[in-house]
Fold:
Amino acid sequence: MNVITRILFGFDFGTKRIGVAIGQTLTQTARPLDTLAAKNGVPDWRALNKLIQKWRPDALVVGIPLNMDGSDQPISEQARQFAFTLNQRYQLPVHEADERLTTKDARERLFQEGGYKALQDGQVDQVAAQLILQNWFNLYKE
Structure:
C-alpha cells in the first residue's frame, strides 16, 4: 500500500504579522515555521515565495478569526481575501479554518515554556499557525 504524504502550510493571518506553520498528513502533525511581516494584511510576498519554493506544500490552511458565537469579526473578510489571493497566486487548494482562541492558547503555551521573553520573540504567530493547522488535521483526518 502506497501512502502519499502531503505537506501543508497553516497561516495565522494578521495585519502586521502572519504566522506560518508546516505540517504533513502522514503523522497529522504541525510545527511552527516562520513569521512574515505584513503591511495592512499584505504579506512580504518575496519571503512567502521562498517558503513555498523551499517546502512545496500541497495545500494551505488559513485561520479565519471569528467571534466566540461564530460570527465574523471585522478582520474576518481580510483573512478570507488573503486565502483567495493565496489560491490565485500559488494555484494550490486553500482551506479555511476556525481560529478562535488560537492566539490565546499560543501565548499561554509560550509563556509556560519561556516566560515573557518567549512572548517577545515573535513566536506567538507561528505557534498560533501551528495550532490552526493541528486543529485542521484533527477535524479532517485523511
Notes: The beta strands are 7-12, 17-24, 29-39, 42-43, 59-64, 94-98. The longest strand covers residues 29-39. The mean pLDDT is 87. The CA atoms of residues 87 and 104 lie 28 Å apart.
